[in-house]
Write a structure and sequence with these properties.
Layout: E1 6-12, H1 35-47, E2 52-56, H2 70-75, H3 88-93, E3 99-105, H4 111-124, E4 129-134, H5 139-144, H6 153-173, E5 180-183, E6 188-190, E7 200-201, E8 206-207, E9 222-225, H7 230-239, E10 242-245, H8 250-266, E11 275-284, H9 288-301, H10 306-315, H11 338-341, H12 353-361, E12 368-372, H13 374-388, E13 392-395, H14 402-417, H15 430-435
Parallel strand pairs: 1-2, 1-13, 2-3, 3-4, 4-9, 9-10, 10-11, 11-12, 11-13
Antiparallel strand pairs: 5-6, 7-8
Helix pairs in contact: 4-6, 7-8, 13-14
The chain binds flavin mononucleotide.
Family: Belongs to the NtaA/SnaA/DszA monooxygenase family.
Keywords: Flavoprotein, FMN, Monooxygenase, Oxidoreductase
Protein name: LLM class flavin-dependent oxidoreductase
């Protein structure tokens, strides 16, 4: 039987996420400062049996392009941008099964406070929380957290390794399973002998513990990651349960999927311990013509400079500094390395800067685009699944709520008819829904080694 497709909605608590210019679209109702808007979105996604909504986040402006933040502000390039974690309680209250994955960087948020916030949300959602672990790629974010410049790319991952050790100790090791006794007769809420300091002393963090939250349903939230550089993939393969990748072709996607699973196995894990989600845009109409018309209208309204501001932040490359006829060359930056490699060292042919600009401007150019009637879109999704080994899709949004509404109303029923998509949620926490089992991280995951703290 074919593997069931997993679906994430990819979004941001921002005026615009990755579809620059489309805030001007007449159907755009992205009222991101309204709680009603987010609650309605959660209900819609749950109606479509989505596995989770995944909130991206950044902590600075995209100011590499033209050496300025102006283009980002003009076009709402992930700015203004509010805290995504604060939406989750309300969205969870209105739903029963939808998961919530939230991006929090290891470079700027202190691990003790982060661990408490995740535990709180895991309690309040009944175990539906995931954490997208990022090291953050914007120099402007570093300047907002007391640094003159960004910590170097690979050093950020080293710091992230230690960060994870701290939070694993807090989540997995600090409170024993039976530490909370709520014993009325003895007058004891928690047994002090079963709650442990973590006494972490490392190169970057000193945390005494114990964890200040009692164990939540999942303890460690579901762990997600999207680093695509060599170092990023090493990190993912060790820690991540869900990996997000940008996708450009069957071949490159299959390469990443196989590579991440092989690296997971080298880390003592199993290939199926990692679910891979491919970023994609879906434009669907009742007919192909209707879908094509939707894309034409979106293309007409899309912004020429917003995508360049975004690419500047991801890559550290300011495309405005080059002649469009220059060839694009590889430059190692401390932003995200995969965004530069894609158009240089990993490209099949040498690309001119003008060609790169054209690609990043195109809707779906940065990742993939599946367009057509509901049946054609389902065919497209099926082909990606069969040819690459991915587990599902991380659905980018173009116009909200339209993009997700179309998928729920038009595509999901076709996938269900073909037996490629669930018809009801499995019970349990987010981890149990995705992986089955006990809902705890397996013994072969590195977090497990911090379970029995003295
Ligand atoms: C689908 C997807 C979503 C991402 N979301 C975020 C995000 O919300 N915030 C962030 O700082 N980085 C985000 N990233 C960036 C990566 O986590 C990573 O930091 C970046 O790719 C640079 O690391 P690398 O050089 O290892 O690729 C995302 C990447 C992908 C592919």
């Amino acid at each position: 039987m074919a593997k069931k497709i997993l679906l994430n909605a990819f979004d941001m608590n921002s005026a615009m996420h990755n579809a620059h210019g489309l805030w001007r679209h007449p159907l755009n109702q992205r009222n991101y400062t309204s709680l009603d808007y987010w609650v309605e979105q959660a209900k819609l996604l749950e109606r479509g049996l989505f596995d989770a909504i995944f909130f991206a986040d950044v902590l600075g402006y995209y100011d590499t392009y033209q050496g300025s933040r102006d283009a980002a502000l003009r076009d709402a390039v992930q700015v203004p941008n509010n805290d995504p974690t604060l939406l989750i309680s309300a969205m969870a209250y209105a739903t029963k099964h939808l998961g919530f994955a939230v991006t929090v960087p290891t470079t700027y948020e202190m691990p003790f406070a982060h661990a408490r916030r995740m535990s709180t949300l895991d309690h309040l959602t009944g175990g539906r929380i995931g954490w997208n672990i990022v090291t953050s790629f914007l120099p402007s974010a570093a300047r907002n957290f007391g640094m003159d410049k960004m910590i170097a790319h690979d050093d950020r991952y080293e710091m992230a390794e230690e960060y994870l050790e701290v939070v694993y100790k807090l989540w997995e090791g600090s409170w024993e399973d039976d530490a909370v006794v709520r014993d009325l007769a003895r007058g004891m809420y928690a047994d002090p002998a079963k709650v442990h300091e973590i006494r972490h002393e490392g190169a970057h963090f000193r945390v005494a513990g114990p964890h200040i939250s009692e164990p939540s349903p999942q303890r460690t939230p579901l762990l997600l990651q999207a680093g695509a550089s060599g170092r990023g993939r090493e990190f993912s393969a060790k820690h991540a349960e869900c990996v997000f990748i940008d996708s450009h072709s069957f071949e490159s996607t299959k390469f990443y999927v196989d590579d991440i699973r092989a690296k997971a196995v080298a880390n003592g894990r199993r290939p199926e311990d990692v679910k891979v989600f491919m970023a994609t845009n879906i434009v669907v109409g009742r007919t192909r013509e209707e879908a094509e018309e939707k894309l034409r209208e979106m293309t007409r309204l899309s912004s020429p400079e917003g995508p360049l501001a975004l690419y500047g932040g991801f890559s550290g490359i300011d495309l405005s500094q080059y002649d469009p006829d220059d060839y694009m060359g590889y430059k190692a930056t401390d932003h995200g390395q995969a965004s530069v490699a894609r158009f240089t060292t990993q490209s099949e042919k040498r690309l001119k800067v003008g060609e790169v600009i054209e690609t990043v401007r195109k809707i779906g150019g940065r990742n993939s685009l599946i367009l057509g009637s509901p049946e054609e879109v389902a065919d497209g999704m099926q082909a990606w699944m069969e040819n690459t080994g991915i587990d599902g899709f991380n659905l980018a949004n173009l116009i909200l709520p339209g993009t997700f509404q179309d998928v729920v109303d038009l595509v999901v029923p076709v996938l269900q008819e073909r037996g490629l998509y669930k018809t009801e949620y499995d019970p349990g926490t987010l981890r149990e829904k995705l992986f089955g089992g006990s809902g705890r991280l397996p013994e072969r995951h590195p977090a497990a080694s911090f379970r029995n703290l003295p």
